[in-house]
Amino acid sequence: MASKKSSRTVYIVDGSRSPFLKARGVPGPFTASDLAVNSARQLLARQPFEPAEFDEVILGCIMPGAEEANIARVVALRLGCGKHVPAWTVQRNCASSMQSIDCAAQNIAMGRSELVLAGGSEAMSYAPLLFSKAMATWFGKFSSARDVGSKLKLLSRFRPSLLTPVIGLLKGLSDPVVGLSMGQTAEIVAHRFLITRQAMDAYAVQSHQRLFAAHEQGRLSEIEVLYDSDGKYYEHDDGVRADANIEKLATLKPVFDREFGLVTSANSSQITDGAAWVILASEAAVKKHQLPVLARVVDSEWAGLEPAQMGLGPAHAMAPILKRNKLKIEDVDYWEINEAFAAQVLACVEAWKDSQYCRSELHTRSAIGEIDQARLNVDGGGISLGHPVGASGARIVLHLCHLLEQNNANKGMASLCIGGGQGGAMLLERDSG
């Protein structure tokens, strides 16, 4: 954020999200743009202003479909924002929709915007299957061959093995610089901070239990029911397992290091489709439209670190926010750290307790302290509800707003690790009492 002395106050006034729908090996019922549109319709319908009064629409998405180029503009037009409302798409891997919120907040703080619709969407079940370089080369030569003889010669060289697909999702969940999958980076941070398999599995079970309780107790009012073209409806995150237990999880084999690893499919985030939105407004817009206020965006931070240890990104991004705002751990009422992996969340907690790590990596004088897990991801997270990459940042920010409101609390911190070795964090505040 810009200097608090010179910038305008930025409010989050409302928001919504879709249920997060687990990918099950085939394309899901909604594309990324469908998810974004359907989860925003009720949100916009209840506002006292027209969609055309937004100054801009910003959407995070890392895998829009071939027919969704600049997906933010596609969605904005489908939502009735009109041709005069500009819209743009951002991509910062796992924190894409937190980036969209940050961009919106910056523009409002600087006086460039008054009302912004910001969020993220991802249909991971629609991740493409790609042809190999060899197949693409064969296609290119065949299409450019000028005579029948040349084409027949190329046909004689064709082999069925050329059609073996490249799974785009696996490519996207790997770091090309260090040559590691995201799961392998989780193994590295687990090893560094001695996170055990039992601790990971226990954390995963807790995530499912907390999300199930939140659904049962009606504490996820931000979810909008979705209806598909066949008339089916979706009202809950469908990856939650109420029957999850440590004994069952202990039987699963490691995925990313089959011989020595600890990270399994059950203590990792789920491959999921989903979308989430927030509406940000200036003080003038709040007064003009008499909008309710969920929270203020106080500060944000983006950090870089070793890509092979990308899961520690939240520890790096949250620390400067505490320092700038002269806060201690106990001053923050609720924490949302996106659950890419149980190992990664637990490693972030351990990193802040480690005085050597804090001094050498975070440049603090001593250990920052321990986050109370009773205030961390209290309604579950990516392990139990999934991590649709472009949408998770907006989901945790929106849910944090609701947590503060439901518990009459004052401050909350939302953060994510980011593939490629980054971390993002945002501090929210509301008036309590």
Q: What's the arrangement of secondary structure elements?
A:
Elements (H helix, E strand, L loop, with lengths): L9 E8 L3 E2 L9 H14 L10 E5 L10 H8 L8 E4 L5 H14 L5 E9 L5 E2 L2 H12 L3 H9 L9 E2 H5 L1 E2 L4 E2 H11 L4 H20 L9 E2 L5 E2 L11 H5 L21 E11 H7 L5 E10 L8 H12 L9 E4 L4 H12 L1 H7 L20 H4 L6 H15 L4 E8 L3 E8 L4
Helix pairs in contact: 1-2, 3-15, 4-5, 7-12
Q: Can you tell me about this structure?
A:
This protein has 433 residues and is α+β, with helices and mostly antiparallel strands. The protein has a domain at 177-219 and 298-429: Thiolase/Chalcone synthase (Peroxisomal Thiolase, Chain A, domain 1, 3-Layer(aba) Sandwich), CATH 3.40.47.10. It is 36% helix and 19% strand. It contains 15 helices and 16 strands. The protein has helices at residues 32-45, 71-78, 96-109, 133-144, 148-156, 168-172, 182-192, 197-216, 246-250, 283-289, 313-324, 342-353, 355-361, 382-385, 392-406; strands at residues 10-17, 21-22, 56-60, 87-90, 115-123, 129-130, 166-167, 174-175, 180-181, 226-227, 233-234, 272-282, 295-304, 334-337, 411-418, 422-429. Strands 1, 2, 3, 4, 5, 12, 13, 14, 15 and 16 form a ten-stranded mixed sheet that branches. Strand 8 and strand 9 form a beta hairpin. Helix 1 packs across helix 2 (71-78). The relative contact order is 0.20.
